[in-house]
Amino acid sequence: MKKAFFQLHIAVFLAGFTAILGRLIDLNEGLLVWYRLFITVIVLAGIMYYKQMLKAIPIKDMLQISGVGLIIAIHWVAFYGSVKYANVSVALVCFSATGFFTAIFEPLILGKRFLPAEILLGTMAIAGIYIIFDFHPQYKVGIAFGIVAAVGSALFPIFNKQLLHRFTPRTLMLYELGGGLLSLTLLLPFYLLKFPATHYLPSFSDWMWLLVLAVVCTVLSFDLQLNALKKISAFTANLTYNLEPVYGIILAFVLFGENKQFHKEFFIGLGLIMLAILLQMGRVLYAHRSIQPLQDHR
Fold first, then answer.
1. With contact defined as beta carbons under 8 Å apart, do 89 and 252 qualify?
2. Which range, 79-83, 87-91, 229-233, has the best average confidence (pLDDT)?
3. What H or E segment, with its residue span, contains residue 296?
4. Does the predicted model carry a pTM greater than 0.85?
5. Could you tell me which residues come within 8 angstroms of residue 170 by beta carbon, excluding any fewer than 6 positions away?
6. In this structure, what DSSP letter does residue 220 have?
7. Distance (Å, whole) CA 269 – CA 132
8. Which of 7, 120, 160, 180 is the most buried (most CB within 10 A)?
């Protein structure tokens, strides 16, 4: 069990580290995501071929999965756009709005009832982002990218819930990222017209960081999470992933000194967002403990 918890926290840490890599890689966000997808798909397909896990799926399913891959690609481009046009801390703060958008989109898409508590806590996170936006207008483009990233982050798990009933996680990941790569290849020329790149080929250091991003922070992180889930419940894993923006912001403060770039209003907004996350974790933990004795009794 200790090993599983360690694997899970490493996976969450690596997820938070992806924002740091977005700052270190000197590429336009669209190109950065294209290279990340390209390397990840090749590595993942190679691993699955070696382990004889590659499976063909019907064209109809492939198109459906590719649609989710497009959402993932847009989410990643927007997330790294937030890092590029603002900074790591702002990008991760905006990422915290995912809970608000999930509380809105999940009932609409899956036909569930709205939960006022989740909407209220999500609104607290949005209020925190508004405070930061109001007092740090120089980050407005980065914040806009961050909000788009949060919308994407809320949408693709909702669609994945349906698909995971029919496909293994690795098969789903390969076809989603493959679909995202194909979609982004078609859309990238239009994106670069609006957000031009200064160069199109990665430098040597960019290649090194891209390999870390694709192999370590995507493929390895995914495997660590899967291994952890063999011992730890999905509930615990989802709760632990709330630490992702916390890890990332701490790393940004330590590595880049981003805390020196902000006024007190940033920390007020950040505090409001962290309070919303803590209240949500407490609410879910309380509900889980209330249900667990009933399940044990059965």
1. yes
2. 79-83
3. helix 264-297
4. yes
5. 44, 48, 53, 222, 226
6. I
7. 6
8. 180
The CA–CA distances, whole Å, from 30 to 82, 91, 215 equal 12, 16, 19
Q: What's the rounded mean pLDDT across residues 193-200?
A: 94
What 3-state class would DSSP assign to 187? helix
Is the Cβ–Cβ distance between 204 and 25 less than 8 Å? no
Beta-carbon contacts of residue 73 (< 8 Å; ≥ 6 apart): 33, 37, 180, 181, 183, 184
Instruction: Work out the end-to-end distance of the chain between its first and last CA atoms, rounded to an integer number of angstroms.
Output: 24
Position with higher pLDDT, 225 vs 248: 248
Higher pLDDT, 56 or 133: 56
Distance in angstroms (rounded) separating the CA atoms of residues 194 and 292:
52
Integer-rounded Cα Rg, in Å, for the chain is 19
Token representation of residue 184: 């982004």
d(CA 292, CA 280): 18
> Quick one: pLDDT at residue 298?
43
Q: Residue ranges per domain, the chain?
A: 2-297
Burial classification of residue 283, based on how many CB atoms lie within 10 Å of its CB (0-12 exposed, 13-18 middle, 19 or more buried)? middle
CB 146 within 8 A of CB 79: yes
Report whether 125 contacts 180 (CB < 8 A): no
Nearest to 214 by CA among 22, 3, 7: 22
Angle between helices 140-163 and 116-135 (to 10 degrees): 160
Q: For 85-99, what is the HEC assignment?
A: HCCHHHHHHHHCCHH
Q: Of residues 99 and 67, which shows the higher confidence score?
A: 67
Can you read off the two tokens belonging to residue 245? 């923006």
Average pLDDT, the chain: 86
